[in-house]
UniProtKB/TrEMBL annotation:
Coiled coil: none annotated. This is N-acetyl-gamma-glutamyl-phosphate reductase. The lineage of its organism: Bacteria, Pseudomonadati, Pseudomonadota, Alphaproteobacteria, Hyphomicrobiales. It is found in: Cytoplasm. InterPro entries: AGPR, AGPR_AS, AGPR_dimerisation_dom, AGPR_type-1, NAD(P)-bd_dom_sf, Semialdehyde_DH_NAD-bd. Belongs to the NAGSA dehydrogenase family. Type 1 subfamily. GO terms for cellular component: cytoplasm. Catalyzes the NADPH-dependent reduction of N-acetyl-5-glutamyl phosphate to yield N-acetyl-L-glutamate 5-semialdehyde. Gene3D superfamilies: Dihydrodipicolinate Reductase, domain 2, NAD(P)-binding Rossmann-like Domain. The gene is argC.
Length: 350
């Protein structure tokens, strides 16, 4: 395993693509061999992201001009809806290539649920059925043997790591979950949008996609798998005036006589051997600055003042464990590399 894997990145001019470049550039087993960005074709990554001035990287090209047969893996950072047909074309050109999709296009297993939430029929149904949901801590064995991994969204990663072990252990009532989620503006992508302008997003807090956010069915899908029944959650996301970071506060009803300490104990047991999931000690509250720039997740449990209820708080960096970092963690598994390779950065604080 001494030879480096040749990596391509689709959509390298977006925030998730750029963070994949940042992390892979220092990965001991990876060589960035192709970068695509159709709107910036011909430019260097240093032109698009000046903080890459010190790296010797391939020029950005249109995705159609890449020779996919020369690559071992591709990371896809394209917007949802644009990914399906491109990935199908890449796999047709090179059936052995490993695909790490960071978009939402292959996360939902049910084709009708996808059509309902994304407004059109899935355009690569044969691949949708093949894709493995890429929440590393829960699907490690399937990911290791997969060809196409659908890396989870940032909100689902934070929420599911906090709640799935509790649902599986039947310590919470899965029919009574309220999730208050907050994310930095990079979660909205790099495209120009009025609501992410500094003068509109700064010094304020705003909810968005209330009752309609497309991460809700993804959360319900995976909690439902853990609980063994269909689940509907109350999920409301908010935009907070910072570049990166995410914090989800989940309000849950205890079940079977469980206590908040039981919830914390179940999480500690579930993640005792996980390199990137940290369960905070009693009385310690997770904060975004504890994980900023890292692949770590921090989870805390607090007793609610309302009897038989608890509050579960989880935080991560939406561009790392919530996207590019988790994709690299999955890539490591797919190639039989140490799972932590290229991902052991300590959080940036302050």
């Amino acid at each position: 395993m001494s030879s480096k894997k040749r990596i391509g990145i689709l959509g390298a001019s977006g925030y998730t693509g750029a963070d994949a470049v940042r992390l892979l550039a220092r990965h001991p087993n990876a060589e960035i061999a192709a970068l695509t960005a159709n709107t910036h074709a011909g430019k260097s990554m240093g032109d698009v992201f000046p903080h890459f001035f010190m790296l010797d990287l391939p020029k950005l090209v249109e995705w159609e001009k890449v020779d996919w047969t020369t690559l071992d893996a591709v990371f896809c950072g394209l917007p949802h809806g644009t990914t399906q047909e491109i990935i199908a074309a890449v796999l047709k050109a090179n059936p052995k290539i490993k695909v790490l999709d960071m978009s939402a296009d292959f996360r939902l297993r049910d084709k009708d649920t996808y059509a309902q939430w994304y407004g059109h029929e899935h355009r690569a149904l044969e691949l949708q059925g093949e894709a493995v949901y890429g929440l590393t801590e829960f699907y490690r064995e399937k990911i290791a043997s997969a060809r196409l991994v659908a890396c989870p969204g940032c909100y689902p990663t934070a929420v599911l790591l906090a709640l799935v072990p509790l649902a599986k252990a039947k310590l919470i009532d899965v029919d009574d979950i309220v999730i208050d989620a907050k994310s930095g503006v990079t979660g909205a992508g790099r495209g120009l949008k009025q609501n992410t302008l500094f003068s509109e997003a700064g010094e304020g807090l705003s909810p968005y996609s209330v009752g309609t956010h497309r991460h809700a069915p993804e959360i319900e899908q995976e909690i439902g798998v853990a609980a063994g029944s269909a689940v509907t959650v109350n999920f409301t996301p908010h935009l907070i005036p910072m570049a990166r970071g995410e914090l989800c506060t989940s309000y849950v009803k205890l079940a079977g006589g469980a206590t908040p300490d039981d919830l914390r104990g179940a999480l500690e047991k579930a993640y005792a051997n996980e390199p990137f999931v940290h369960v905070a000690k009693k009385g310690v509250l997770p904060q975004t600055q504890n994980v900023r720039g890292s692949n770590y997740v921090q989870i805390g449990v607090v007793a609610d003042r309302i009897k038989n209820r608890a509050i579960v708080i989880s935080t991560l960096d939406n561009l790392v464990k919530g996207s590019a970092g988790q994709a690299i963690q999955n890539m490591n598994l797919m190639f039989g590399l140490p799972e932590t390779a290229g991902l052991e950065q300590i959080a940036l604080f302050p």
